[in-house]
Amino acid sequence: MAVLAHGKPAVTTSGFLTEPVWQSSGSVVMVPTGNHDKMIGSVESLLADEAGRRRLATNAKSLYDTRFDLRNVIGQLRNQG
Q1: Are the C-beta atoms of residues 42 and 29 closer than 8 Å to each other?
Q2: Whole-structure pTM value
Q3: Distances (CA, A) of 60 to 17, 48, 75, 78
Q4: Phi and psi of 9, rounded to 5°?
Q5: Residue 72: Cβ within 10 Å count
Q6: What is the pLDDT of residues 40-76, one digit of tens each?
Q7: Residue 14: left (phi > 0), alpha (psi -120 to 50), or beta?
Q8: Which of 20, 49, 75, 81 is 20 to 30 A from residue 10's alpha carbon, by CA?
């Protein structure tokens, strides 16, 4: 969550239990778990793509603010009652 909250681009793994929000959010680059070559390639590609890093950073911050920020979580919990 910290990478999202700070609006930083990230490459992470996806696996059997990965929530769909990560695939559709455009906030992180997803690489299949255990695929080390793809992880390396994704990190290298992201390092070479300044516009891509900015896009991921913007999407990450937006996703955090709208879905995971404490104020929003508390509001959602209050509305469930």
Answers
A1: yes
A2: 0.81
A3: 20, 19, 20, 25
A4: -70, 150
A5: 13
A6: 999 999 999 999 999 999 999 999 998 888 887 888 7
A7: beta
A8: 75
